Amino acid sequence: MKLKAVASTATLVACAPSSTALVSGHAGRRRCVLPPRSAVPNDAQNEGSCKSALLDLLAKVPPNESTPRELTTSILAAVKALEEECPTPESDVLAKLAGNWELLWTAQDVSSLPGGRRTNPFATFINPLENQSYSNNPTGRSNPILPQNVQDGLEEIGILSDRTAGQSTVRSTQAINLDKKEVRNVVVFEANNPTPLFSKDGRTRGIITVDVRGAPSPTDKRRIDVKFDRCRVTLQNSPVDVRIPLGPIGPTGWLRTLYVDDDMRITRGHKGSVFVLSRTASK
């Protein structure tokens, strides 16, 4: 198996069961030599080179805007290669999920949907719980919070974030408690706000919390079946604190993890979403 991931900045990373990886960048071409086969087991060597290739591509993702389509294609190819090298036995995958995670990047991989179908965009738009990524970021993002076209528009006019900023103004984290069968997703965001209403130093800061009930699938050792339980929206320096219990109307779905190690996880959702996350704490 040989994978070449080509980034929009003309960086070529070869992920293959060989002893070298070729990188072409602004400074010209250079050959990166991996450890000799005799020093590293084949499985570990393949996994290490594929993981490095993915991290190199993710480092090129621009903050506060959609990922260029060519780069998204390369990242999804690198994701699939790394999924084939998961070091965790299938029986231990779900136990490995416990702890805190931070979202690095997400997109919709249409190829993983039955027949390559996209979800009905209208049905997706009217369900706010699916706006963060589920089917709404086909070209990828590191910081989704709204449907891609809406978020792009707010960023372009400078309301949601400043695209010249060196870091994202949206941070998404996830805490998984296997004992309580709970998953908590938290999105912290900032928006430019020149008015004195709910603003401090010209910025409005908010938190979106979505609590999900999750249980291991009885038929798939890599899958958690989920049901959205409740959500909460708060704005700092304001009386805004909206809590929405979902009860029986909460959407259901599943999350299937195809790669997990001590510090990285790749999970796919029931509507074709791909999530790449880094571990921030265990248990």
Would you mind describing this structure in some detail?
This protein has helices at 42-58, 69-83, 93-96, 121-125, 148-156, and strands at residues 3-6, 12-15, 20-25, 28-33, 99-108, 170-177, 182-192, 203-216, 223-235, 241-245, 252-260, 264-269, 273-282. With 283 residues, the protein is α+β, with helices and mostly antiparallel strands. An eight-stranded antiparallel beta barrel has the order 5-6-7-8-9-11-12-13. It has a two-stranded antiparallel sheet with strand order 1-2. A two-stranded antiparallel ribbon has the order 3-4. The longest helix has 17 residues, at 42-58. The radius of gyration is 20 Å and the shape is globular. The two termini are 35 Å apart. Mean pLDDT is 75; it is low at 1-14, 16-41 and 122-135.
List keywords for this structure.
single chain, alpha+beta, eight-stranded antiparallel beta barrel, 13 strands, 283 residues, two-stranded antiparallel sheet, 18% helix, globular, disordered N terminus
